[in-house]
């Protein structure tokens, strides 16, 4: 099979390599490449639950790799990153864009080139959800699987597409043409259901006609760029703008203001603003900057400030959150400006923006903004003419891993490793990227910092509440008439937001995403603020028709899917929660629940809160706990008995024995307990 | 999701009277020591699996989770500081430990009666110590083939608890980096560094530290079975809590 692919394929591949296609657009613009590979994947098992037997395929993989290693494209990937092992995630990502997947022998070649062990490269490749160490379809379709996509009918739409293509979810079609599966929230909840094509293009507002047409285009192998342009349209949906969304700054204004003040005075102003981090934990941004500014790094003899890093966390992975997507698309200048101001304060020369893989389509736009800012002398050497103020920003694209939103896991990923949260202390402000003092702040935090630089800390502190200053952007989705972005000063009541977005008969709101808090109607008079209901930006609305058990089950599957696997309670606990909830769910477990199952769920929640390695694991059971307490009937109607029920039907298990013995009398059956 | 807090509450002040309280009794410590290092030196037992005195802390098994001034943290990664009130041997924490052990048992395939490591196994001994009488949770029954390709060593992945002691020993002591971690979530697994992915093709020898570091029965020498009868093995002699100084490699 694969050992005998025609020479024409080789020529095509080398041709493609010589096309000098820009690697970042490889998925979209080089469809001929994929077509040429059609026969390459013939013969691979279509049911990918079992990997192809290694021995049978070693030769074919080697040949595939032999081609790619010779190809100029792979060499260009390696040299663009200077064969730096710290760039492994980027190299894997860009190489996969050429190959469609990552054969073992390619990983082996990569390990040799980067002077890493094969097991290390394999371990990194196996960590990220967007890397494939088994063949995938030449076209890869991933349906966003947030609860808001499901509420808009994503499950039926995916089933419809799969039926039209004659495949099952998770499978590759027999001709290797396409694979369809689900992925965690893609951050398009206000215009879902959404899907991701080849980890690059997004299609929004899916409906039955779109899916029917999509199936036809896939069958005809029409290149993605020739699909209807309106499918890729992404709206900003800004419904309520305050300072961040409504008062754009002129490029350079914040930097000029910060330079006029000086680094120390700028830091004092940041502290005066009392700005707290917008990623969820709410640590005071000014204090973080000060700790980093004063840290000397792990390399003895290093001058303070000379190797400090500014990192922007744009790994907006919390389901239901999409504010950073809009800030990056519409306010990238303010974000980069905030990073530049931070660089001035902490004395950094290099900035990094960690862009989640799902937002890959924003990369060209962001690169263009960076280049314009270099041309405007807002990045690069002697920024705005200030000798010695040198700073630039590089973009690192993630590859599908929620845990990389945790700042130390993000740094591990930036360093080309598995995104496992580090042991802290030391904190990143002391030993972060490459062991050097590093600040990691959220996109919205940097955006706010640029406004504080321009208008002053006292001005910012005058907005919001005493403990929660400034404004907060909420990504509103779910059961409401006007989903989108709503920016309010801190202290705004939940019911105010519900009224403004046109929500009716609201049963519950999930604030801050699955790791946040689920509020029921009697709590809608509470306020968004660190001292009351903190939020990382998600605001998912559920009306009275929704089953809150299914909401919690969707979130439980999310956490199990995204667990990094490092610590026992999160790795095993999230999988056990899924097993219990699936047992309770009518769909998969026959609804065989009991009071005992709820007790076990409570026990798991307590354990995860008390023992996990990182904060994400600790919050993995939050939606479960909240919904069991506040929406208990949704669980209890799934309980067959209030005592104990096994996960399987004991009597049915005896059916084979009955058949073998030819008996079906009452004594051959177990007594059915009440 | 970034999270920095209480950065100053964990440092030992140099020259200060260096003791913390562990379950009501003072434990002396030296600057830079973690809670479990100081406790172990003092002959006190804090349950653990992934921690080993010869290696950098890892913090993955979470068995050593204690409460320091009321807040939970891993004793293997937390720096000792003067005046800390540390709780470890409490009903609540031991119940958590038992649940963590049960999780490790159901996650893999652990069948003690047929395991050569029985009696020398830290997982088994700690489960006895914590009063674990059954798995409590449903079994996962993962499909993990055995790797018998090496002439002198057997790898039985069914028993792996992902403590990464072999990863650390091979990298930091043997200088070979034979092992690494792959996958994610419940599918996280041990990897062998060789072209075939099998130990027989890896640069591993019976005398390597990594060959004897496994606290459970994953890495075993071949052609050695029941040299010491069951009943006379390490943890048959005394419970793990009374062997805090003997946390060396496998006998």
What does this protein look like?
The complex is a heterodimer of chains A (674) and B (251). By secondary structure, chain A is of the alpha/beta class. Chain A folds into 5 domains: 2-125, no CATH class; 139-232, Glutaredoxin (3-Layer(aba) Sandwich); 238-461, NADH-ubiquinone oxidoreductase 51kDa subunit (Rossmann fold), CATH 3.40.50.11540; 474-544, Ubiquitin-like (UB roll) (Roll), CATH 3.10.20.600; 549-641, NADH-ubiquinone oxidoreductase 51kDa subunit, iron-sulphur binding domain (de novo design (two linked rop proteins), Up-down Bundle). Helix content of chain A is 43%, strand content 12%. Chain A contains 31 helices and 16 strands. In chain A, the strands form 4 sheets. Chain A has a 6-stranded mixed β-sheet. In chain A, a hairpin with a 5-residue loop joins strand 12 and strand 13. In chain A, helix 5 (72-80) packs antiparallel against helix 6 (88-99) and helix 26 packs across helix 28. Chain B is α+β, with helices and mostly antiparallel strands. Chain B folds into 2 domains: 19-89, Ubiquitin-like (UB roll) (Roll), CATH 3.10.20.740; 94-224, 2-Layer Sandwich (Alpha-Beta Plaits), CATH 3.30.70.20. Chain B has 6 helices and 9 strands; from the N terminus they run ββαβββααβαββαβα. Chain B has helices spanning 35-41, 91-107, 122-129, 165-173, 209-212, 234-237; strands at 19-22, 25-28, 65-68, 71-74, 85-87, 153-155, 179-182, 189-192, 219-221. In chain B, the strands form 3 sheets. Chain B has a 5-stranded mixed β-sheet with strand order 2-1-5-3-4, with no helix packed on it. The interface between A and B is large, with 65 and 49 residues.
Quickly describe the structure.
By secondary structure, chain A is α/β, with parallel strands linked by helices. Chain A contains 31 helices and 16 strands.
The backbone outline of chain A, from C-alpha atoms, is globular
Secondary structure class of chain B reads alpha+beta
- Give the structural class of chain A: alpha/beta
- The counted number of beta strands of chain A is 16
Number of domains of chain B: 2
Biggest β-sheet of chain A: count, sense, barrel? 6 strands, mixed
CATH superfamily of the largest domain in chain A: NADH-ubiquinone oxidoreductase 51kDa subunit
Note the beta-strand portion of chain B: 5-15%
- The helix tally of chain A amounts to 31
Alpha-carbon Rg of chain B, integer: 19 Å
According to CATH, what is the topology of the largest domain in chain B?
Alpha-Beta Plaits
This entry's quaternary arrangement is heterodimer
């Amino acid at each position: 099979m694969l050992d005998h692919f025609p020479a024409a394929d080789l020529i095509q591949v080398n041709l493609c390599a010589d096309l000098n296609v820009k690697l970042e657009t490889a998925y979209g613009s080089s469809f001929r490449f994929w077509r040429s590979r059609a026969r390459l994947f013939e013969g691979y098992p279509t049911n990918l639950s079992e990997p192809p037997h290694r021995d049978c395929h070693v030769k074919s993989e080697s040949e595939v790799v032999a081609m790619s290693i010779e190809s100029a494209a792979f060499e260009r990937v390696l040299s663009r990153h200077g064969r730096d092992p710290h760039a492994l995630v980027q190299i894997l990502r860009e190489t996969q864009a050429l190959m469609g997947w990552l054969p073992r022998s390619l990983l082996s070649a990569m390990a040799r080139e980067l002077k890493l062990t094969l097991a290390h490269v394999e371990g990194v490749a196996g960590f990220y959800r967007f890397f494939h160490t088994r063949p995938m379809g030449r076209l890869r379709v991933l349906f966003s699987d947030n609860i808001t996509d499901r509420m808009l009918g994503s499950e039926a739409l995916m089933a419809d597409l799969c039926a039209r293509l004659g495949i099952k979810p998770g499978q590759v079609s027999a001709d290797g043409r396409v694979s369809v599966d689900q992925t965690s929230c893609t951050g398009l909840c206000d215009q879902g259901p959404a899907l991701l094509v080849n980890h690059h293009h997004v299609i929004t507002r899916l409906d039955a006609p779109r899916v029917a047409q999509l199936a036809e285009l896939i069958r005809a192998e029409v290149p993605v760029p020739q699909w209807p342009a309106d499918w890729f349209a992404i709206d900003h949906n800004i419904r309520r703008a305050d300072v961040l969304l409504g008062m754009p700054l002129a490029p350079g204004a914040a930097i000029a203001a910060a330079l006029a003040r000086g680094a120390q005075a700028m830091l004092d102003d940041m502290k005066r603003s009392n700005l707290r981090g917008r990623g969820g934990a709410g640590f005071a941004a000014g204090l973080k900057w000060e700790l980093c500014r004063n840290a000397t790094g792990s390399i003895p003899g290093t001058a303070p400030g000379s190797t400090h890093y500014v990192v922007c966390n744009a790994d907006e992975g919390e389901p239901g959150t999409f504010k950073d997507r809009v800030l990056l698309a519409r306010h990238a200048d303010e974000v980069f400006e905030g990073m530049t101001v931070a660089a001035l304060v902490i004395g950094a020369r290099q900035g990094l923006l960690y862009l989640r893989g799902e937002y890959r389509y924003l990369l060209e736009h962001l690169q263009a903004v960076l280049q314009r800012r270099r041309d405007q002398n807002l990045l690069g050497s002697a920024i705005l003419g200030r000798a010695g103020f040198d700073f630039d920003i590089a973009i690192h694209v993630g590859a599908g891993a929620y845990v990389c939103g945790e700042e130390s896991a993000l740094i591990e990923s930036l360093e080309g490793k598995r995104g496992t949260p580090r042991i802290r202390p030391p904190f990143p402000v002391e030993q972060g990227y490459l062991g050097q003092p590093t600040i990691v702040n959220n996109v919205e935090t940097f955006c706010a910092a640029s406004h504080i630089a321009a208008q002053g800390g006292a001005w910012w502190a005058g907005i919001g509440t005493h403990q929660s200053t400034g404004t907060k952007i909420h990504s509103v989705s779910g059961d409401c008439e006007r989903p989108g972005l709503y920016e309010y000063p801190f202290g705004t009541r939940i019911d105010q937001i519900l009224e403004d977005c046109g929500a009716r008969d609201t049963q519950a709101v999930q604030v801050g995403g699955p790791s946040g808090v689920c509020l029921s109607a009697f709590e809608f008079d509470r306020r968004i603020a660190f001292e009351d209901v903190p939020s990382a930006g998600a605001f998912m609305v559920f009306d009275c028709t929704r089953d809150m058990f299914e909401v919690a089950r969707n979130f439980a599957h999310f956490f199990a899917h995204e667990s990094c696997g490092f610590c026992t309670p999160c790795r095993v606990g999230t999988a056990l929660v899924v097993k219990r909830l699936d047992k309770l769910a009518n769909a998969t477990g026959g609804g065989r629940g009991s009071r005992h199952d709820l007790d076990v769920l409570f026990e798991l929640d307590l354990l995860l809160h008390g023992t996990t390695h990182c904060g994400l694991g600790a919050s993995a059971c939050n939606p479960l706990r909240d919904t069991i307490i506040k929406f208990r009937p949704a669980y209890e109607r799934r309980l067959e008995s209030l005592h104990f029920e096994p996960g399987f039907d004991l009597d049915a298990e005896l059916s084979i024995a009955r058949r073998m013995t030819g008996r079906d009398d009452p004594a051959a059956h177990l007594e059915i307990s009440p | 999701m970034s999270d920095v807090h209480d950065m100053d509450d964990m440092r030992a002040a140099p020259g200060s009277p260096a003791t913390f309280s562990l379950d009501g009794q003072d434990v002396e410590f030296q600057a830079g020591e973690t809670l479990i290092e100081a406790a172990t030196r003092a002959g006190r037992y804090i349950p653990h699996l992934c921690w080993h005195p010869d290696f950098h802390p890892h913090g993955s098994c979470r068995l050593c989770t204690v409460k320091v001034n009321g807040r939970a943290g891993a004793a293997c990664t937390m720096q000792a500081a003067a005046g800390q009130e540390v709780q470890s041997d409490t009903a609540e924490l031991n119940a958590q430990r038992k649940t963590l052990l049960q999780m490790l048992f159901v996650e893999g395939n652990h069948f003690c009666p047929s395991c050569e490591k029985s009696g020398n196994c830290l997982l088994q001994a700690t489960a006895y110590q914590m009063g674990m009488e059954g798995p409590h949770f449903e079994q996962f029954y993962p499909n993990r083939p055995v790797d018998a390709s090496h002439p002198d060593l057997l790898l039985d992945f069914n028993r792996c608890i992902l403590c990464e002691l072999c990863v650390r020993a091979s990298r930091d002591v043997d200088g070979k980096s034979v092992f690494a971690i792959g996958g994610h979530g419940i599918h996280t697994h041990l990897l062998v560094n060789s072209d075939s992915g099998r130990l027989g093709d890896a640069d591993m020898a019976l005398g390597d530290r990594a060959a004897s570091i496994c606290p459970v029965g994953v890495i075993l020498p071949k052609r050695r079975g029941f040299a010491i009868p069951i009943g006379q093995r390490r943890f048959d002699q005394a419970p793990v809590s009374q062997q805090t100084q003997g946390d060396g490699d496998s006998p």
